[in-house]
Design brief:
The chain has one domain: Alpha-Beta Plaits (2-Layer Sandwich). The chain is 37% helix and 37% strand. It is built from 3 helices and 4 strands, in the order E-H-E-E-H-H-E. The protein has a 4-stranded antiparallel β-sheet, covered by helices on one side. Helix 1 runs antiparallel to helix 3. It is globular, with a radius of gyration of 13 Å. The model has no long low-confidence stretch (mean pLDDT 97).
Length: 94
Amino acid sequence: MVVICALITCFEGKGGEYLENFKGLAPKVRKDPGAITYVIHRKTDDPDQFFVFEQYEDEDAVKYHSSTEHFKAYRQKIAALVKERQIGFYHEVV
């Protein structure tokens, strides 16, 4: 299993718009082959910061996710909203 942790910081006041775009993407990603979990969390004291938790069966599922038209379209839509993105890839060990 592959886990992805994405920390997203939007430009000030853009968190709501970012979240609306994510809400449109999430149901599509959850139907992708090999996708297990795809959820977003909003920071309690900063509405412009998010934590995205993703789980995939394997590396091929991650590659597929990154190649989909719905993910590419989402990335284009949110490009002007996101100030910073930190992404970590993890493998389940226990």
